[in-house]
Amino acid sequence: MCLNKLKDIIKNSNNIVFFGGAGVSTESSIPDFRSENGLYKTVNNYSYSPEVMLSHSFFVNHTEDFFDFYKNKMIYKNAKPNKAHYFLAELEKRGKLKAIITQNIDGLHQKAGSKNVLELHGSIYKNYCVNCNKIYDLNYIINSSSLIPRCLNCNGIVRPDIVLYEENLNSDILRESINYIKNADVLIVAGTSLVVYPAANLISYYKNNKLVLINKSSTPYDKKANFVFHDSISKILSEIYQA
Ligand code: ZN
Hints:
The protein is α/β, with parallel strands linked by helices. 34% of the residues lie in helices and 19% in strands. The chain is built from 11 helices and 11 strands. It has helices at residues 3-11, 23-26, 50-53, 56-61, 63-74, 83-93, 108-111, 138-143, 171-183, 199-203, 233-241, and strands spanning 16-20, 40-41, 47-48, 97-102, 117-119, 122-129, 135-136, 158-162, 186-190, 211-214, 227-229. β4 (97-102), α7 and β5 form a beta-alpha-beta unit. The site of zinc ion has 8 residues, from loops.
């Protein structure tokens, strides 16, 4: 696929929307837990899949194991943005990129300087008490002396503001994401296999003819896309950047 053509499209548009999945963060050494085959052995020596451990019912019924998994496997506080994150932040600064819609919870787009980031699955940086809704930052979770972080006000459980399996997406964020996609001139979709809800569903709102897919493996949308790159996201984006 012709990189020069993609360069032109980006150069000539001031209404680009980016939709990103786990593949955007794997280049910052954050593993995609879905592609990790290993089961996680909890403190109680039961083995569960990550999908089970990140479900609402697991959080409720096995709260200690949930936090054991979450703190060990889901928090990457020292991860650094990669070239893709910086490229997107620069596009926004130049007034070309309208929004980043991400399925990642690592906050790396904001670390790279992006302002309008719609976090479909929430963020590890936001946490709240399930009883009184008091807000806590990431350090509070990391530094909590007990495995289960507790609220200073009411001793309630402080949970991450991320969307667990069996939980609904935030409807405001979803609505806003759909609006950006509907009205986008260029839609760049990267680092997602587009098989898991809501990704596949969201892409169907795009009505224009500049759909760009960047993913290491093929996706069910490859045929519908106008440009397909089976390559590293940061490599493709940084090659455009240098032009
Ligand atoms: Zn509380």
